[in-house]
Write a structure and sequence with these properties.
This protein has 202 residues and is of the alpha+beta class. It contains 8 helices and 8 strands. A 4-stranded antiparallel beta sheet has the order 4-7-6-5, with helices on both faces. A two-stranded antiparallel sheet has the order 1-2. The chain has a two-stranded antiparallel sheet with strand order 3-8.
């Protein structure tokens, strides 16, 4: 049962107005707990781990967790949700596709450091490295820059400036489902106790 369905069933079962503010707050905190615990979450992809470092999925910032809030509409109705547009695909999984003939720019290793110095958008990052005098260009399905101070040997054994990857370019990216927006039977029981609704009504 999804969190929205569970809360809807709970609301419809109430025979008298209840403390929807308290129930909504409890439900939101339970869902935030699922996100924090991350039980059975698929691990980070190698590209994501290289970009953000080691850590748990959906824990890079507290943005998603803190966005889960509740709204007591009246004595019988409460909503729990998030205003983050990416929350649904993170919860249910899916495929992100580039629009038209464009590419998805996937962060590469070391990009976070560049973003701290140059800005967060792709254009800001690329312009930052251009301003340093680096050659910024695409190599296959990657975009990055050459650092003339660092050399590496190419396939022919010749020394050349090292290419630093900033972004990987892809047409699609598959996001694994990481379920966090739900209520367990035990959590539902606690919410119904708060509302004074017997379990046998469901």
């Amino acid at each position: 049962m999804s969190a929205l369905d569970a809360l809807d069933s709970l609301s419809r079962a109430l025979q008298a107005p209840a403390n929807m503010e308290a129930i909504g707050g409890m439900a939101a905190e339970m869902i935030r707990g699922h996100l924090h615990e991350g039980k059975s979450f698929a691990p980070l992809s190698p590209a994501t781990a290289a970009y953000r470092g080691s850590g748990r999925p959906l824990q890079d910032t507290a943005g998603l967790r803190d966005s889960i809030t509740h709204n007591a509409i009246d004595g019988r109705t409460v909503s729990v949700g998030t205003n983050k547009p990416y929350a649904a695909i993170q919860n249910s999984g899916g495929v992100i596709r580039a629009k038209n003939k464009e590419w998805l720019w996937i962060p590469g290793p070391g990009l976070k450091q560049a973003q701290r110095k140059g800005g967060h958008s792709v254009r800001e990052v690329l312009d930052f490295y251009k301003s340093l005098g680096f050659r910024v260009y695409r190599r296959g399905r990657a975009a990055g820059y050459n650092d003339p101070k660092k050399k590496t040997r190419n396939a022919e054994g010749k020394l050349e400036p090292k290419f630093h990857v900033l972004y990987y370019l892809k047409k699609t990216v598959e996001i694994p489902a990481r379920k966090f927006f739900y209520l367990t039977d035990q959590e539902m029981s606690l919410l119904m106790q708060e509302a004074g609704v017997a379990l046998n009504q469901f």
